[in-house]
## 1
Amino acid sequence: MQAANNAAKRSEFERQALVHFDALYGAAYRLTRNARDAEDLVQDSLLRAFRFWDSFEQDSNCKAWLLRIVTNTFINEYQRKKRHREVLDAATAEQDSTDGVLIHADANDKQSPERTLLERSVSDDVQRALESLPDDFRTAVVLCDVNGLAYKEIAEIMACPVGTVMSRLFRGRKLLAAALRPFAVAEGYVREPRATAPTTEDKPLDLEKYRAAKAAKGTP
Amino acid sequence: MSSTRLCESIDTLSMAYLDDELAVEERRELDLHMLECGACRTQLDNEREELSLVRKALAVPPAPAEVRERIASALARSIDADEVTRAREAREARRSRLSRFMLPGAAMIAAAASLAVFVAMQPSGETRATAIAHEALRQQTKALPLEVQGVGTAPWLRQHFAPTVTLPRFEDSVALVGARLTAVNGHDAAQLQYEIHIGSGSIGLSAVVIRDIQPAQLGGGDDIVVGAPGRQLMLHVIDIDGVPAVTYVDDNHTGYVFMSGQLSAREVVRLVVASNLIDRAQDLR
C-alpha cells in the first residue's frame, strides 16, 4: 500500500518535474562554476524537490517552484562550500608562495587535472564574468536570460519586489556586458567597443512605479 | 509632454520592452515615441545589442544524455536511500515502543537487563548452534512457497500441523501472512511467515515451529535469560554465516526459531520477548 503510494509519487514526480530537466540544468550550469557542480546541484535540488513534493501545489508553476529550489540550494549550500574552498585556497596559495612555487594566475584551485579540464571546457570568460557578479544579480540574470522567466516569476522565486528584480537584472547585465565586450569585439560579435553606459547605475528601475506615476498624472 | 515622461524612464521602459514585459498599449506608445526621439532609439538599440551579447554568452548547451541518465539514476538511488532511512526511523520508533512495552513490571526489567548484557557481549567467540538449529535456519532462508496464506493460516496449522501448539503472536504491527509444513532433522515442523509493517513498507520475519523437541536440541549460541527470578526462560541467539536467529523451546517441547534478514539479533530478541510465547510463560507462574 505504502510502496504503491511511493511508486505513484515517483511517477507523478517524473511526469511533472523531470520534464524541466533542461531548464534546471541550464540554471545550475550558470550558477555554479563548472559542469560537475551543476550536475551535483541539479541532483541535490531534484532530491529536495522530491522530498517536498507533497507540499507542491499541483496547479501552480512547477518550473518556477523547481527553480526556486535550485537557487536556494545554490545560495545555501554551494556558496557556503565555495567560500570554504576559497579560504582553503588562500591558505594553500600562501603555503605555495612561501615554498617558492610560481602560481599561474588562473590556477587558483588545487584540484585534479580532470577537474581542471572540466572547468576549461566551460567557457572560461563567461563563467569568470558571472562569478564576479553578486549572487543576487547573477541569480536574476540567470533566471531571466537562461530560463526566460517573467519578472513576476523571478520576484516570487527571489522573494523580492518586481522593481528589485529589474534593478538587479539591469545592473547584472551591465556588469556582464562590460566584462564580455572585449571578447565579443575580438570574436566579431559586436561592432566596436562602446563608451561606458550613461550614468544610470543608481537610478532605480521600476516598471510598477512608472505605471503608478503615469496613472497619477493621467494620460495626456 | 508624454515624450519627456518616456525619455525620463527610458532605462526601465527599454528593458521591459526587450524582455517583453510591457502591456500592448505601453509597447505601442514606446514604438511611436521611437519614431520621433533619436536618443531613446539609440538607447534601445544599444540595450538590444547588449542583451543579445549577454544572452548569446549565457546560452547553455543541452545536458548530454549521459549526464541526464547519471542524474536520474543517482536521484533514484537517493530516493531509495531516503526510503530506507525512513524505514529505519520507523523501526527505531517501533523499537522504542517495544522498550516501553518491556519496561513495566519487575519481570521485564530483568529481561531488559539481560538484553543489555547480551548487547554488550556481542559478538562472542563461540556461537556454535546445534545441528537442528542450523537446519531450521537453513530452511528459513530457502524461501519456499507458502501452502496457506491470509486469515486462514492459523486454523489450517491447527488442523494440519498440531492442534495444541502455540503459534507465535507479536505486537499488532506484525501480521502472520502464511505458512508451509516442513521437517527439520526428522521433527515435524511448520514455517510461519510474518510481515512487520513499519512506516512506508514492511519487512519479513519468519519462524520455524518444531514439534517434540528437547531444549538442548535447539541450544547453542549466546544464552539470554529473560523473566523474573524464579521463573526464568532461556533464549538462544545463534549466528550461522552472519544470519542471526533466536531460538526458544517452551514447556510443551515445542521449539521456535526466529529470524529476519533485515533485523539484527537484538531486534529479533525484542520482538520475541514481547510476543505471546514469553507473555504466556510469564502468566503461568
## 2
Amino acid sequence: MSGIPLVYYLGLAVILFSLGAAGVLIRKNALVVFMSLELMFNSANLLFITFSNYYKALDGQILVIFVLATAAAEVAVGLALMVAIFRSKGSIDLDQMNKLKG
Amino acid sequence: MILSDALAILPLILLIVWAMIVLLIDLWIPKGRKGITALLTVIGLAVALVLTVMQANSPTSAFSGMIKVDGFSVFLNILYLASGIAGVAISFDYLNRMDLQHGEYYVLMLFSIAGAMLISYAADLIIIFLGIELLSIPLYVLAGIARSQGSSEESSLKYFLLGTFASAFILFGIAWLYGAGGTTNLAGLVTAIPDGLNSAGALPMLLAGAGFLVAGIGFKVAVVPFHAWMPDVYQGAPAPVTGFMSVVAKAAGFAALMRVLFIALTTETGDVTPVLAAIALLTMIVGNVVAIAQSNLKRMLAYSSIANAGYLLMALVPYSNPAVQADSVASALFYLAAYALTSFGAWAVITMMEKGEIQGSEFSDIAGLGKKNPLLAAALSVMMLSFTGVPLTLGFWGKFYLFRTAIEGGFIWLAVAGLLTTLVSAYYYLRVVVMMFFRDGDPDLKYSFWASTVVFFGALGLVVLAFFPDMMFGLATKAVLLLK
C-alpha cells in the first residue's frame, strides 16, 4: 500500500457500498438488484483486504475467502429462484411482485 | 483442527454430516414413502439433542477461541433442535396434502438448524457471519418450496433480496469493527480497540461497525424500521416453513445480537443503549398497532412476531449495565422458549387450515372452530392468551421477567410502554378466540395427527410450565455467556 494513503481505500469502499445500496433501493429488475447486492459484498471485501494489509494480519484475507464462498452459494440460490420466477411469470420485474399486500 | 475441537462441536458436525447422508438416502426412497426421510431427520435431530445435553456441564473453548461452548449455546441449541423436531411434525401432513413431499425439504431444515447452532457457538465475527448465511440460505429455498404457487415464489424472492441486503450490512459492519480493532474475535475487540489504528480513527470506525452490524441483525429479526419484508414473507411462504422460521430465525438473530452486544460492545465508547431503547419502543408500538388492522391470520402473526421482537429487545437494552446482564440474558432466553412453544402451536393450526395461494388463512376461515373441534380451539386459545401474556400461561412469566429486567436496568418508561402495548395486543389476540367460539362458520380443517400433537403439547407445556417459572428461569440463568 506504499504511496496510496489508507483513507483512499476506505473512501472507495464507502462509495461502492453506497452505490450498491442505492441500486438495491432504486432498481426494479431483480437481477440488477442482485448485482447491486454483490457490489455491497465486495465493498466489504475491499475493506477487509485493506485492513488486513494495514495490520499485516491474515485473518482479514481469510474472511474474504469465506465471503466469496457464501456469495457463490447465494448466487446459486438467487439465480435458480429468478429462473423459476421467469418461467412462471415471464418477467423478473419487482413491480409485478404485488400478490402479497396488507 | 484437533480432536478436542471436533468434540466441542460434535452435535453440529453430526447434524451436517447426517443432513448429507439423508440427502443421499432420500434418492432411494420412493415417492409415497417419504415418511422414512422425515423419520431419519427426526432421529438425527434427537441424537444431536442428546449430545448437546451431554455438553451442558463442560463449558469449553475451541478452534483458537472462535467457538465457545457454554450454557448459552447449550440452552439455545436444545431450543433449535426441539424446534426442528416440531418443525418436521407440523410439515409432514401439510407437504403430503399440498403435493410438496420432497426429501430436500427436511435436509434444508437440518442445514438451517446447523446454521443457527453455529451462531450460538460463535465467539468470533467470522463465525457469526457464516452462521447467519448457513441459516438464511436454506430458508430462502424453503420459503419458495411451493414453487407452483406464485405467492410462495414471491415470498422467496423478497426474502432472498432483503435477507442478502441485511447480510451485506452485517458484513460491512464486521469490516469496520475489524478495522477498529484489528481482530474479529469478540472478546479480543474489547481489549484491542484502545490500541487500534489511533484513538481518533478507531472511534468512528467502531461506531460505524456497531451501527451497520446492529442494523443488519435488526433486518434479520425484523425490528422497526427494518421490518417491512416480514409480513409479505410470512404470508407467502408455506405455513410450516413460516412457523419454523418464526422461531429458529428469530432466536438465532437474537443470539447473534446477544453475543455481539454482551461481549464485544460493552465498552463505553461502543455503547448503543439509546439506539436499542428507541428501536425497542418503536417495534412494540408499530408491531402491535398494525397487527390490529390485519384480516389475515398469517399477517397478524407476522406483526405479532415483530411486536415480540420488540419485547425481546427490551431485555437487551440495559446490556451495558453489568449488574443486570445475567438477568438480561436469562429473561431473553426464557421469553424465547415460551415464544417457541406458543408460536409453533399457533402455526401448526394454520398448517391444517391453509389451502395454497394464500387461501384459507383469513380470520373468517377460523369462525366456528369452537363448535367443530373444541379441543383444538381451546388449545389455540391457550396460545393466544400466552401471546397476550395473561397470567397462568408461560407467556405471562416471559413478559414478567422481561419487564422486570427493564425496570432493574432503569428503563421504567420502556416497561410501561411494553405494558401499554400488551394491552393493545389483547385486542387482536382475543379476536381469534372470539372468532372461534362466538361466530358461526364452517371451518375447513384438514386434520393432521402430528400437527395436532404439536398444538396439544404446546398448550400443555404453556400451562404446566407456568406453575414452575422459577425452575425454568433458573435453567435460563445458568445459561450465561462464557466471556473469556
